Amino acid sequence: xxxxxxxxxxxxxxxxxxxxxxxxxxxxxxxxxx
Length: 34
Fold this sequence. Notes:
Blueprint: H1 7-20
């Protein structure tokens, strides 16, 4: 049986993986200079 991944579930799994690897989670920001 195949698990259906929603975008929300995928994002949460991705972030959780990096948290468990001791990476720092930072808020997104624009890369366009002001």
